[in-house]
Amino acid sequence: MITIVIIVALLVAIFTASVKLIPQGEAAVIERLGRYTRTASGGLTFLVPYIDRVRQRVDTRERVVSFPPQAVITQDNLTVAIDTVVTFQINDPAKAIYGVDNYLVGVE
């Protein structure tokens, strides 16, 4: 009886490690043994248990980032403070994770 309980607990642990749910509007960068294999977008994703892992989830929706005002000198030597608002969207989550250390600072 104890062996059956242990086997069922093991099967439940393997099942929960192999199935991941990625919400719509997000993408997950998946690594196999520490190396990039694929990017999974919204939906149900199956992984090889204990070999594949989700490295990071990336929000793929459009973002709006506001930056602090910066002083700018015009042609007629006037100092003007400019407020900056940037909208951006991540199209390739793997490049956002592996290509840049912090992509929000890179946008700034």
Helix proportion range: 25-40%
The residue-averaged pLDDT reads: 89
Shape: rod-shaped
DSSP strand content: over 45%
Instruction: Going across the biggest sheet, name each strand in turn.
Output: 2-1-3
Number of helices: 3
**Structural class estimated from helices and strands:** alpha+beta
List keywords for this structure.
5 strands; 3-stranded antiparallel β-sheet; single chain; 108 residues; two-stranded antiparallel sheet; alpha+beta; 3 helices; rod-shaped
Topology of this structure?
Blueprint: H1 2-18, E1 19-32, E2 35-46, E3 52-59, E4 63-73, E5 79-88, H2 93-98, H3 103-107
Antiparallel strand pairs: 1-2, 1-3, 4-5
Explain how this protein is built.
The protein has 108 residues and is of the alpha+beta class. The protein is rod-shaped, with a radius of gyration of 22 Å. The longest helix has 17 residues, at 2-18. The termini are far apart. It has three helices and five strands, in the order αβββββαα. The protein has helices spanning 2-18, 93-98, 103-107, and strands spanning 19-32, 35-46, 52-59, 63-73, 79-88. Strands 2-1-3 form a three-stranded antiparallel beta sheet. A two-stranded antiparallel sheet has the order 4-5. A hairpin with a 5-residue loop joins β4 and β5 (79-88).
